[in-house]
Amino acid sequence: MFAKQAALRMVLCVVAWADVGATDQAKASKPARTFARRASRYAYKLDFSTFLGGSDFEDVRGLTLDAQGNIYVCGPTKSRDFPTTPGAYMAKVIGESSGERGHQLVAKFSPTGKMIWSTLLGNPKACEFPICMNVKVDAAGFVYVSGGAGPGLPTTPGVFQPKFQPGAPNNANAFVAKLKPLPGF
């Protein structure tokens, strides 16, 4: 697992950095010099950098790591050719997109930047204003995403609010979704 990690957010460019740390001598500096040394002791080298997207708009709005250092990202996409993997919940953007947003993207990368899986969330008729803002993963590998979406976001039986409530600003309600891990992923 990485000792230190940082992520740079660019238009669907995921960048992972590796900490090269400080020397023991720098750690043993006099107290008056500690602040200056602490501020400059983290040197980084590029560990990997990759693009994720299709021929239209994408953006990463949420990023998290699991205990193995895998990287999970989420955000909006409008690309009809957004890259998804076999077994994806939703493999293609279908229908018309509103504004700059069409569907939510959720993807998992290895610590070395290889795509493990990628899927879309949304309505086959396209949601109004869908945008994934947060992504988390638990110890069992379940992935949780949240954000805002309009009418048409798919829901499952027995949930708190199965129907969109119109009249909200920007015609959006908050949403929470849980993705179950598939064997082998």
Strand-helix topology:
Layout: E1 7-10, E2 13-19, H1 24-27, H2 31-40, E3 44-51, E4 62-65, E5 71-77, E6 103-109, E7 115-121, E8 131-137, E9 143-149, E10 173-179
Antiparallel strand pairs: 1-2, 2-3, 4-5, 5-6, 6-7, 8-9, 9-10
Short account of what is shown:
With 185 residues, this protein is mainly beta.
For the structure shown, list the relevant keywords.
185 residues; mainly beta; four-stranded antiparallel sheet; disordered N terminus; three-stranded antiparallel sheet
Structural features, described:
With 185 residues, the chain is mainly β. It has a domain at 53-179. Helix content is 8%, strand content 35%. It is built from 2 helices and 10 strands, in the order ββααββββββββ. It has helices at 24-27, 31-40; strands spanning 7-10, 13-19, 44-51, 62-65, 71-77, 103-109, 115-121, 131-137, 143-149, 173-179. It has a 4-stranded antiparallel β-sheet, with no helix packed on it. Strands 1-2-3 form a 3-stranded antiparallel β-sheet, with no helix packed on it. It has a 3-stranded antiparallel β-sheet with strand order 8-9-10, with no helix packed on it. Strand 4 (62-65) and strand 5 (71-77) form a beta hairpin. The model is unreliable at 1-39 (pLDDT under 50).
